[in-house]
Amino acid sequence: VIPCVVSQWSAWSGCAEPCKTTYRVRTRHVVQEPRNGAEACPALEERAGCVEYWTRQGTECKQSLIPALITTGGFGKARKKRAAADGKEKAGYCVEFQLVAIAPGCLHSHHSYTHWMRYLREGHTVCVECQHPALDSRSQHCSGDGTGSRKNQLLHWQAVGNPRCKGTWRRIRQLDTCSCPSVHSFLFI
What we know:
Number of domains: 2
Strand content: 25-35%
Helix content: under 10%
Radius of gyration: 21 Å
């Protein structure tokens, strides 16, 4: 029996398309074909999720095309301390959204770091803070904050730490500071 032998994986490609949630690819090739009843070769291609926030011409994507990546507001205290330590912190802002649809995956998160997802409820207003380092120095916005979106346009969000926890929301308004209860306060990543 002569087993299949494959090469090492190539480097990951760039995102298949800019300005949308898409995929990147890596490949490998068959070095030796299997013979005499050996097992078939393993997969020769792998794909992984990917989001590219800049067009191939180097301009920033329109915000409404990008899902907002969010995490619990409690993460912000540690992040602010790190940002202050390097002296580059810029003033942030907050965006209020009304939750429209939430995937069932938000309720089925069993890890301690995903318990905050259980507070996401359709119809609730949530506050999402944009702070350094998620605040882009060129645009002065966080990716996915809905800047430039039409009134009542459905925008997409995804929770960091559980890819099955995602949904849609409508942007209500932008504020200088957040005023939501802590269970409804989140951060752009």
